[in-house]
Amino acid sequence: MTIPFNKPFTIGAELDYITDAVKRGHLSGDGHYTKLCHRWLEQKLGARRALLTHSCTAALEMAAILCDIQPGDEVIMPSYTFVSTANAFVLRGGVPVFVDIRRDTLNLDESLIEAAITPKTKAIVPVHYAGVSCEMDTIMAIARRHKLLVVEDAAQAVLSEYKGRRPGAIGDLGCLSFHETKNVISGEGGALLINNPALVERAEIIREKGTNRSQFFRGEVDKYTWVDIGSSFLPSELIGAFLWAQLEHAEAIIARRRRVCAIYREALQDLADEGLLSLPQIEPEGVAGNGHMFYLFTRTAAGRGPLLSHLKAAGVHAVFHYVPLHSSPAGRRHGRSTGPLAVTDDLAERLVRLPLYFNLGDDEAGAIAGHVRAFFKR
Question: Which neighbouring-strand residues pair with 190?
């Protein structure tokens, strides 16, 4: 048996909708299916405005422009995140300021944020790791107190919950991913959620290459022209068609992934009780993840390599996750750290991600857990 780490899937009418999009004669973006996706995201997540983008990276780059990041402006974020979180702001001349993460959720440690704020700070970028929300009430209170913008990197958190709200729709801006490794997919793809009403009009302009084209098509101006900086952030209508079919079944997708996570936890809990490994913390009250990821920690950094090799030999493709940005060549060149980032360094060296995708069967998940058990019980 060979089990990949991830496997793209179709669940509904993806191919039919793509064919229909072609027949409708509008493939360049913002057509029928893109608009359906926009409405779904706005209604289901509670965003004031949703705009599909060709990637979450693109959404983050739009957010950096909307935050008016200028050379030397500082942006607080975790080091334990994907490179796009930092890159989007570096492209505008910003300086990522890396703050340590919480040991229980691997999210930005909100208790360390205020100490990292300087007169140059412009924004805070919480990353909802594994689809489990950051402590947004505290983060938003800090941001309002210091007059900072909040950009949520919710790439992994579609349909997660935080005290009755949806991550991505809490801060000023939220960035989503529909990459094939995420829960709801369109191959590549993303979305920018605009929750601050003062940013909606400019977001449309930036997304349309800096023109007021959207206003033109709504009949608000008699011709469209170049009015601001921007780029081509629109995805093809084919992406919208594929994504719409996935959004129609989003709840079922997330329920299935949560089921796989439950299988893993149940099978490995006794190993955690014995101290042979560590499992993710149970989500606090009012917070519900979306089953995006299941990970474990080996007791030592030296123990991770042998576990990954053991799983590979058994035909299971498990992986580690991010190399912390503060220790990367570009991170050292473009950003700076506050404090030693000891939790980030420790957990990054011991984390192992197990395979998780929609059509991973119960038996396969059980077999993967069995291989993990065999390694620790041998």
Answer: 53, 177
Which two tokens mark 254? 């997330």
Instruction: Decide: pTM greater than 0.90.
Output: yes
Helix 56-66 with 200-207: angle, nearest 10 deg: 130
* 24 in any annotated domain: yes
For residue range 110-139, what is the model confidence (pLDDT) as tens digits?
999 999 999 999 999 999 999 999 999 999
Question: Are 45 and 61 found together in one domain?
Answer: yes
Is the distance from CB of 116 to CB of 97 less than 8 angstroms? yes
Q: Name the percent of the chain lying above pLDDT 90.
A: 94
Q: Are 67 and 123 in contact (CB under 8 A)?
A: yes
Q: Return d(Cα 349, Cα 372) in angstroms, integer.
A: 18
Token pair 């909802």 in the structure block, residue:
128
- Closest listed residue to residue 212, CA positions, set 204, 199, 28: 204
Domain range enclosing 97: 14-247
Query: Are residues 110 and 241 both part of a single domain?
Result: yes
